[in-house]
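Batch job 17 of 40 flagged for manual review because the log was empty.
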Amino acid sequence: MFNNDVGKPTIIGWDIGGAHLKAVILDAEGRLVDSIQLVCPLWHGLDYLERAILDSLQAFKIKPSRACHAITMTGELVDLFESRHDGVCKIANVATETLGEQVWFYAAHEGFVSSQVVYSFTNLIASVNWHASVSVLALKMQNALFVDIGSTTTDIIAIKDGKVISEGITDAYRLQSDNLVYTGIIRTPVMALAQKLPVANNDETVDINVAAEYFATMADVYRLTGELNASADITETADGKGKTQLESARRLARMIGHDVDTRQSDDNSLEKWIKLAFTCRNLQMQQIKTAMLKQLNPHMTIIGAGAGSFLVKAIATELNHSYITACELVSMWPAEQSNLHIQHDINVCFPAFAVAYLAQKNLINTSNNLAKH
């Protein structure tokens, strides 16, 4: 796979999304060195991707030629491209031009392919970052349900007898089978939750129609519930304004035709909207839980990842299932991972870690095979 003339190289795993770029760097011994997530609105143009890659390398303080690069992507979905095939090819071109020759692309069960043959594997490269994540976890977990709640989508994949259980890998199939639920904790519009929201009004609860407008997102909801980690809250708000609880409440109130009453004290003016935020949270939890139950077997461990792993934990608790984050699981791996000291919470960037880890395993196996001959 990679050029073995350089010995054991540093590996950078890249997860190129439509809204964010995530990267994880492993040293030559497989230890986690650093991770980063940057805003990358790919629908505005490929120059945003090039800039985000260069900014990541600058943050890592490494030249692209000093590392090998393993890439997975979902960014081919944005409407900048005519098709997924077109998107994969164009993203691969930018990545190769920016990072150099030691660039490889994850193609699900086919492993890694070079930039020269990407065009022949686009159907296996498109949106398979979840496959990389589960393939790594399946090396150590025999039976589990992996749930990655990101900013935009939720991946739900079962591991049975140490194998990834997914009959199809396309988004179309996974949407049909509830392996993919298009809901996330940051970018999802609140209007996608329901047509009506139950709202407390004096001594009664009334159902109010939801405005079919991009007034508020789920990030507003989780700022109000106090669960959104600031490090993951890097996407612009629906109105381009601030991210305080009051500003989030104003956006959420617009969804049901209301304004926040600032004549009251801050606590009183926010109380109603915090309650509504928890209502929205429960609706999203129910949507994800319903999809999870289609694959969840008794005694399965639930593995959480993504910026919304806190929501996975809440669902696991509600279902009375054991829970662990992907990050915690990796930190407990013996032998080859005993020297992997988790310096950052890599849950948000887990697919990037996964492709880096798989690439390094591939390199080690290739080196061992060469040594035997």
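Reviewer: the log was empty due to a logging misconfiguration, but the result itself is present. Confidence is low (pLDDT under 50) at residues 335-341, 367-373. Unflagging and moving on to job 18.
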